[in-house]
TrEMBL record:
SUPFAM superfamilies: NAD(P)-binding Rossmann-fold domains (SSF51735). One of its GO terms (molecular function) is aldehyde dehydrogenase (NAD+) activity. Pfam families: Epimerase. It comes from the Bacteria. This is NAD dependent epimerase/dehydratase family protein.
């Protein structure tokens, strides 16, 4: 019986990974969560709970004791406007704590869930895992910088013998996207509250497929290596059109320039900093994702892990919409 720990099981990808772990009779699921986590969202899972926090190294070391594998599906990303230095300090502390806990225990292998935004824009138009920033990215967005530094630390840890693999899912849609996170583009489009979108290229994967790829990367991946877990390459325009067609929506949102989106974001973030209120939807992270999107090549995961996506773009969107409806994120007449 393999004991497998999952950090971030209350999130979309973590939940799908945990379900996959639980479905194998040779696996025993351990959910590693913060003390104040809302576990009601994972009431469908059977697991042993271990309390820990990525900000607390000692708690992670204790939580990892006796585990064979650990998947960190709860990696840090900016959620509220903070100074860049503060964001980087949080990110470095959490990834270093994760690495230290792996080192202190006899974990066979661990997976860090990275972000495709840590991969530079490819000159060929389709990026792969070999694309690496040789220095800090010119884009000083907190999201870009945080994902870059965590990716760098994880790769260096692997190079130094720590049994860690980096799994990088593309833009992910699926059930259990409380918040929502990436699925916000779907809810806003269907609810017809999307003011506009920025043209660009994306790769979209269903969360269930991504979970299979991530688990395979943890079990089969080479230490210190990155693995892109991909679905379909698609333009943002086609993505929006697909959502609209599936829901029989008449009006197509307008595309806006990246420059205009950045200006609107800057105004809204400044307003939030001075006057508070609700967090702006068009924040620094959203702008970073819009500007850094690109097509992705998933051949490495196919060849080394045996991973191929099984869910089409339309199926992924349909399943996500149906789940959002069931959770009242989408209003139906």
């Amino acid at each position: 019986m393999q004991k497998i720990g999952v950090i971030g099981a209350t999130g979309m990808l973590g939940h799908h990974v945990a379900k996959l772990v639980q479905s194998d009779p040779d696996h025993e699921l351990f959910v590693i969560h913060r003390k104040n986590s809302n576990l009601s969202t994972i009431s469908d899972l059977t697991f042993q709970a271990r309390i820990a926090d990525l900000d607390d190294k000692d708690s992670l070391i204790t939580a990892f004791e006796g585990l064979d594998y650990v998947l960190n599906c709860g990696a840090y990303y900016p959620t509220v406007p903070r100074p860049l230095k503060e964001e980087l300090n949080i990110a470095k502390k959490q990834i270093n704590n994760f690495v230290a806990a792996i080192k202190e225990n006899s974990v066979k292998k661990a997976l860090y869930l990275g972000g495709a935004i840590a991969i530079p824009k490819s000159k060929t138009g389709i990026a792969n895992e070999d694309e690496i920033y040789t220095q800090s990215p010119k884009n000083k967005s907190a999201y870009v910088q945080v994902k870059w530094i965590m990716d760098k630390i994880a790769r260096e840890a692997g190079a130094n013998g720590i049994p860690i693999v980096i799994g990088i899912p593309s833009m992910t849609f699926g059930e259990y996207d409380y918040g929502p996170s990436t699925g916000r583009i779907i809810t806003n489009t269907v609810n017809q509250t999307l003011p506009g979108y920025v043209q660009g290229d994306r790769n979209v994967v269903y969360a269930g497929d991504a979970a299979r790829g991530l688990l395979s990367a943890c079990f089969k991946g080479k230490i210190g290596h990155r693995y892109l877990i991909t679905g379909e390459n698609v333009s943002m325009k086609t993505l929006i059109e697909t959502i609209i067609r599936l829901e029989n929506i008449d009006q197509m949102p307008k595309s806006v320039s990246l420059g205009l989106a950045k200006l609107i974001s800057k105004i809204k973030i400044t307003k939030y900093k001075f006057f508070g209120g609700e967090l702006p939807l068009l924040d620094d992270t959203a702008i970073a994702v819009m500007s850094a999107g690109q097509f992705l090549n998933g051949d490495k995961a196919k060849e080394e892990l045996g991973y191929t996506p099984q869910t089409t773009l339309e199926q992924a969107i349909r399943r996500t919409i149906d789940w959002f409806i069931s959770q009242n994120y989408i209003s139906k007449p």
